[in-house]
Each structure stands twice: as C-alpha cells, then as structure tokens.
Model the fold of this input.
Amino acid sequence: MSISNILPNQPFERKGDKVNSDFYEEHLLAIYKARDTSVLSQNYRGIHHILVEVDPSAAKNYISELLIMTPYNYLRSFEDQTYRYHILRISNENPDFLIREQITPTPDIIWAMNQLSKNGRQKPYTRYIGEVYNVKDQKEVITKLTDWEIRFSQELPANPSKNHIHWTEESIYTWNFTGYIQEQTGEKTYDIVREWSFQQDELELFAKMKKLQVKLEINEFVDPIDHLATRVFMHDREHAILEFLTLSSYYFWGAYNIGDQNSSTNIARSIHPDITEKNSPAKVFTANNTPYYVSHINKMPSPTEAFVRNFGRRMHHIAYAVKDGFIGAEENEYKNVDFIVDQLKTCEKEFLADVIGSCGEGLKQIFSKSSMFSGIITEYIQRCDNYEGFFTIENVAALTAAAGQDDLVT
Done:
C-alpha cells in the first residue's frame, strides 16, 4: 500500500497506510543512519527478558496464571536489597519473564507514576517495567547513548558484574524502561544476592497449574511471545516509536489506521535476520488519531486514549503466537486458537469477545480480560498458512472495541 509522504531511500519495506509527519519521516532515516554509523545497530541484539512488577503478595497468583495460559515454566526466585524476583522460562532462546515485588513496600517511581491515573492507584506497585536487551558491548552502548542525551537510572559501575543490568530512566512517552545486559551465551544468569523459595504448598500449586495445562491439551499449541503492545497518547505516538528505535535494533515495519476506532497500530521488528519474534518479540504502539476532547465534535470513539487516561501510558497486552492448525474436520473451521479459548473458559478464564477473524482473512485473534494481578491483557494470535502480518484492520478494530468495553478500562 502506497503512503504518500514516505521519504525515498527507505532501508526497510514499509507496510500500512498511516501517514506520518515530515518530522517523523526525516528523523526515522536519521536514526537508522546514526545507529549504523555508531555501530549500535549491530551492538544491540534481542530481548534477554521482560520485567513486570506486581503488588506484594500478588506474585504467586500471577505466576499460577501464566503457567496455565502461556508456555512459561517457573524456574527459581531470588532477592536483592529491594526486590524479590521470580524467573519464568521457556528456553534460553526465548526471553525470560521476570516478575518482581518489593520486599518492603516503599513509595518509589513506580508508585509515583501509578498515582497519576485513577486505575493505576488501585494497584500502586503493579506495572510492566520494560525489556532488557542483550548487547555485545554494554559500556559502548551506555557511553554512546549518554552522548545522545539518553538518561540512565544509575551510573555504570567501574567494574560491573557480568550480569549487571543498566536501566534507562522511564520514557516520558511510554513510561516503560529499557535495560541492557552484556550478551550471554548458553544459560541466562542473573545477579543473585540471596536465594529465596516459595513454600512447598505454593510450589505444588505451580506444578498443579502446569499439569492442568497439559490436561487441557493446550500446552502443545501456545507458542512464545509474539508482540508487546503499549498504548500512548496521540501526541506521543511518533516520539515513542522514534525513541524506541534509538534504543534498540528494531525498525519501523509499518502502521495502519483503524478508522472506526479512531486509532492507529504501529509495529517495530528486529533488523537482525537471525532474530525472530520468538527470540525478540515485535513492539507495538497504539494511539488515538484525534484526542478525546474532540470526541463530542467528530463523534468518534476513543477507547485507546480512554485506556491511557485511566491507567497512564503503559503496556496494554502481551500476545502469544498459536501454532497454525485445526482440531477435527477442517471444514468445521475449529482452529487451534478456538480450542485454547474454549479450554481456558472451563477454568473460568474470561475473554473480552469471541475469537475474531478467520483463516480466509489470514489470522485469528482474541483478547483475555486484563489480569487481576498484572493489569495486562493476554492475546492469542494464530496466523494461517504462513500469513506474515500482525493483524487485519477489521480484526484490530474489533479487538480495540472489545478492550474498550472491559469494565477495568471504562
């Protein structure tokens, strides 16, 4: 699809129909060039792990939820001076999923950000923190980004440990953080001040949840994370994407207008041919096309901006790929994603709508209700017959409308 304002000499093929500003198009090319000439494009690699913080005492329940709904397995827990961390892993080829909780709840930057939105205040320590990226030379990355006026949460130690994670300050556009760790080969490792363990009955609960997933026969169909979707205000959309591309070796894959939901969906993917979404999920940014305050004039809905106003800029959903295929006779059109949803409903898992789309359109998708423990929606997405896109306009419109009806959002 042709987009009139794309500047020439784009290094990556562009998808979609979203028209961006001249500022965006010019600085997109400039960021690609700056990354390449500084060698950051090759220094940045894929995602090492993602990090979610939950309110104290919620970790056990959130882990149990993830064990039944995703391919992750509980591995171990450890502490440092401030946080308790819980590691979930699929394999060393996929990003780990870390959940942290404060050992002694104390108001901090996460608490402060959550105080700025009415729904955020309900779970003051609950927030998607961000991704940690493997880098070939951590010191070089930090030095270059500091020169580019990227701010970090702390000074880089003179002699950082091999597992040191260096975090940026929170983004003013997404409120997510970005971390960097020296690239590891083999098993992922972390700085462990002291080991920590759940009680035996809690560990037995985790084993029970994983066995239940097998009993429901959904474990063989749910694949690793496909994409991570953040919602931002409309005036932050272009800046959020350009900032992210400065901080990673991703490229702007494209963006589509979702006209009847007054929003656009914007996708970034890794530039590295050896890094797939299973190794380093795509990043998605969704924002309104027009601000909420003109809704009474243009008569357009505003579900995306309503979410941001209620929760603040933050992660909206984490999508898991579903293996392509069907259950039973092919003519019944009962796909793997339909089976997963029906099985999870028997465990009282709730979804925001029916499965949306069809294999005739290329893919089928569905949103769960947002987690009681993390506030994050789980998406399942099944691409049919090697469909390469992330959505159809019709699918995203329906998903956006469904999310807008979530009683935790409105």
Summary: Residues 22-37 form the longest helix (16 residues). The chain has a mean pLDDT of 92. The chain has two domains: 42-215, 222-404.
